[in-house]
Amino acid sequence: MNLAVLSQVYKNKDLRKRLIIVIAILAVYSLLAHVPVPVPDSASLQRFLLKLFNSNPLLGFANLFSGGAISNFSIIMMGLGPFINASIIMQLLSHVVPKFEALNKEGEMGRNKINQYTRLLTVPLAAIQSVAMVTFVSQTSKKIEGIDLIGRPSLVQWIVMIVTITAGSLLLMWLGEIITERGIGNGISLLIMAGIVSTVPATIGQMISLAQVDTGKIVSTILLIILAIAAIYFIVMINEGQRNIPVSYARRVSATGSYGGVDTHLPLRVITAGVIPIIFALAFLSIPGIVGQLFTNAKTSWLSSFAQQLTKLFEPSTIVYTISYFGLVIGFTYFYTFLIFKPEEVAENLQKQGGFIPGIRPGNETAKYLKKIIARITFAGALALGIIAVMPFIIQVFIKSSSALAIGGTGLLIVVAVVIETMKQIESRALMATYEKY
Known about the structure:
- This protein is mainly α.
- The protein has helices at residues 3-11, 13-32, 42-55, 57-65, 81-96, 98-104, 108-144, 155-182, 187-197, 200-213, 217-240, 276-295, 301-313, 319-340, 343-352, 364-399, 408-435; strands at 242-249, 252-254, 257-259, 263-269, 355-356.
- The chain has 2 domains: 10-199, SecY subunit domain (Preprotein translocase SecY subunit), CATH 1.10.3370.10; 217-406, Preprotein translocase SecY subunit.
- The strands form 2 sheets. The protein has a 3-stranded antiparallel sheet with strand order 4-1-5.
């Protein structure tokens, strides 16, 4: 962003208003992360959760995306997870179920209906996840501390907690939509980014404190900073990478004159799927841990032993977890890319509009060509996503520092992608404001 754009943002009333709305909502989000769910001893519960999440990288990763709301046992502890899950489910259904597929092709009205179904689906998902989280905290505190820090709630107290946590997720969904409509950028993405960035000052403070206590940590801290800068550069290059497929439109002659004859290009992104493959992979990798915790105390000895081995095998620090994570990310990258990018539809639309790829026959040959190209560049994108995902675990092996997992490759990828997209929207609105003067 150059000085001219910044000057335009300052001078334009609409842009200033939109930025103020974004900043105000992010401030509200930060405050909500510290509003606890009503429990008998909130302070003891928060200390226990903070200790638990610091000792478990997977739980710490989940806490990262909530901006610390889970460790605070906040009313927004579920974050935007239920809404994101509902969005993914509806997106999958819109490609599988004929009814939703038809709605998806109806334009703005159809998309509005799908968005409404997504909001409705968010409610039961948020309630189910709330029950699971409260139960997990209750059982874990009894197992580790020997006391139920939730306080053995009655039915009415259970209802109050679940309704409160569910309402917190719906409130975040509403705030995100306000940012999207009245602010700048994608509201959901900005709130997720805010949750990730909010943990950075505490992480930096922890690294400085460790360096002051142990001078041997200074070298590893400097190395981590260098690696973080290199990772950001790598993520920017991959996120912005695309291959432009040349497309030509034949010149057409009519009674009023000729039109067409335009040469343009079809951009194919290296990472078409975004961070969705990583989210899918994390969801699948959480299943062995959940199953292990459910059957660890089983009365059948072989089942209990199997559950314990399964839990140990899929701990985030193990080689099995890292390799599985890497493989799942690559697999889901291909799956999701071909789910949202359909070469047959693109080829058909090009043919209807009179467009063609030079040297390639329209129709089936164009579809085959696009499929081959997207498969090749997706391979590079899938490898990049896999490396970004497992990078913190690899760094931790060599540096022996938990700070490597504080944000992680996924967090960096989300932050960089959101910042780039938001800056582009600011520049676009500033340019529109400039044209409106003439």
